[in-house]
Amino acid sequence: MNTMIVVPAAIAAVAGVGWLLFRSRSAPAPARRDEPEAAQWKVTKVTRETPSTVSLEFDASLEFRAGQFVLVRPTRELPWRAYSFSRAPGQPLRLTIKRVEGGAVSTFVTEKLSEGAEIEVKGPFGQFVLPDGAKSVLMLAGGSGVTPMIAFLHDLAKQGWPAKVTLVDANRSANEQILRKEIDELVAASGGKLTVVHVLDDASGEGSDKRGPMTRDVVASVLEGMEAPEVVALCGPAGMMESCNAVVRERFPSAKLLEEKFTAVVASVGADAIAHEVELVDGAKTKTFTVREGESVLHAARRAKVELAAGCESGVCGTCRVKMRRGQIDTPDESCLTAEERSQGYALVCIGTAKAPCSIEPAP
Ligand SMILES: Cc1cc2nc3c(=O)[nH]c(=O)nc-3n(C[C@H](O)[C@H](O)[C@H](O)COP(=O)(O)OP(=O)(O)OC[C@H]3O[C@@H](n4cnc5c(N)ncnc54)[C@H](O)[C@@H]3O)c2cc1C
After folding, report:
1. Domain boundary pick from 63, 93, 125
2. 190 lines ligand 1 (CB under 6 A)
3. Cα–Cα distance between 358 and 325 in angstroms, integer?
4. Which of 55, 106, 164, 202 has minimal Cβ neighbours within 10 Å of its Cβ?
5. CA–centroid distance, residue 162 to ligand 1 (Å)
C-alpha cells in the first residue's frame, strides 16, 4: 500500500506543514524565515452546529488547500491549537471546532468566543490534501474529523465532482453530527457522485445507516462490498483511526492512505521513570529541567515551568523546533521534520523524547 502517513508516529504526529510547501526540502538548514507570521482575524459569525460544536467565520482571506489547517490562539493566555478549514479555498473561511472535555482552547471557543472578537492565526499548514486526479476517494471521518472532509467535498463539488466519493461519517449520536444538513445538500447536488454512510453509536440509531462504535468489525461491515478506492482519507479519534487503518490496509492494499490525527497520544509516564537533564541555552540564559523517559520534552519543560515555544503540539507545525547542542531528542519519523533537518540536529520538543542528558537551543 502506498501509505502517506500525515499523522504523528509515536504520538500520532501529523506530517508536513504549509510552509514546507514553499520551502525547498533540499535547501540548507532551515531558518524559519518563511514560517507564516501570526495574523489577527476578526470573527464575523459564530454558528452553533451541535451542542458541543461551533463554526467560526472571519473577516479575512488566506490561500490554502482543502484539508489544510491553521494554528489558532484565541487569546494571549491560551495555547496555540490546530483547526482545519471546513470549507474549500475560495469560499468564506470557516473553522468548525468541537469542545473537548476539559480542553482549554476548544472550551473557550465553544463557550466564550463571540462575534467581533479578534483571534491570532498562523498558517496554512498540513499535507492532508487529496492528490490531483484521484477518481475514487473513500473518506472515513469520526466526530470533528469530518471538518477537513467537508472541505474536500466542497472542493470536489466546485470542480464538478471529478471523483466518486464515499464518506463514512461516524458520530456518537444524531445531535452530534457536525454539518449534517450541509453534507445532505452536497449529496443531493452531487449527481450520484457522493454517497454518505452515517454511523452512530447511539442506541436509537435514528438517521444512521450502521451502528457504531467503529470497531474493526463495524468498519469491515461498512466497507463490505465496496469497490477499492484509489485514495482513502482518514481522520478521527485515535481508536477509530486504528481500526480503520487496519481494515483499510487489509481490504484495499493498493489504495493511497492519507491520515490526519487530531489528538496526540501522550504516553503516560510514572514519576519513577528514568529521568535525564535537559539544558536549554537561549542566548546568554541557560535553564535546566529533567525529562522522564517516554514523556515529551515540552511536557517536562512545562512541569518545570520552563517556557518553550509550541504550536500544534502534534509534530505538525514545527513551531517548537529546537537545535541539539548535545545529546539526542528522538522525534517520530512522521513529524514535519525533514531528513535534512534531522541530520542537522533539529528536533521537535512537543513530541520528542530523550533517552540521555541533552542540551538544546531554540532553532534559528
Ligand atoms: C492538524 C489538526 C487539525 C485539527 N482540526 C480540528 C478541527 O477542525 N476541529 C476540531 O474541533 N479540532 C481540531 N483539532 C484538534 C484541536 O487542535 C485540539 O486538539 C482540540 O480542540 C483540543 O484542544 P483544547 O485546547 O481544547 O484541549 P487540551 O487542553 O489540549 O486538552 C484537554 C484534554 O483533552 C484531550 N484532547 C485533546 N484533544 C483532543 C481531541 N481532539 N479529542 C479528544 N480528546 C482530546 C487531551 O489529551 C487532554 O487530556 C485538530 C488537531 C490537529 C493536530
Report:
1. 125
2. no
3. 7
4. 202
5. 32
